[in-house]
Amino acid sequence: MDRKQGAIPISAVLAGLFAARQWEGRLDLHQLFQFWDEVVGEEIASQARPAVIKGSVLWVEVADSIWMQQLHMQKIMLLATINDRLPGAGLSDIRFRIGRGTGKMAAKPAPAKKGGRKGPDPDKQRCFASLLTALPDVETRARLLTLWERSASSQVGDSEEPG
After folding, report:
1. Rounded to the nearest 5 degrees, what angle is found at the Cα of 87, between the Cα atoms of 105 and 33?
2. 9-109 sits in which CATH class?
């Protein structure tokens, strides 16, 4: 019996899954994490960073209550700027929470420290990356890998999210 006869390429499976779940738009929306510091500026980026997008709501971690109040007053302008930068993003709200760390925050996640939060397992990362090679679009592969890495990192450490 020839097993290849009924085989479906993984790229077709993933493309169908993404279309059925409408994930392509969600992946585009997560570009915000990459250009956050450009949108808000260096000063705000040193005190606040995007944490999670739930539905059409962006949750932002801020350094302290003073920054929370300041950004709350700028929320409409920030929301318009983000939605202009990502046409079709459709963010409806930005909510703020005080970050887990103290003091200045980095706009991008800090590298893992020894004894602290660990990154994703390198073997699993290589395995996932090899699965993505079936996708023809290089940019889609890169975005999926970044999304997987963030997801895997959050599962290794504290994964508490707003509810």
Report:
1. 20
2. alpha beta
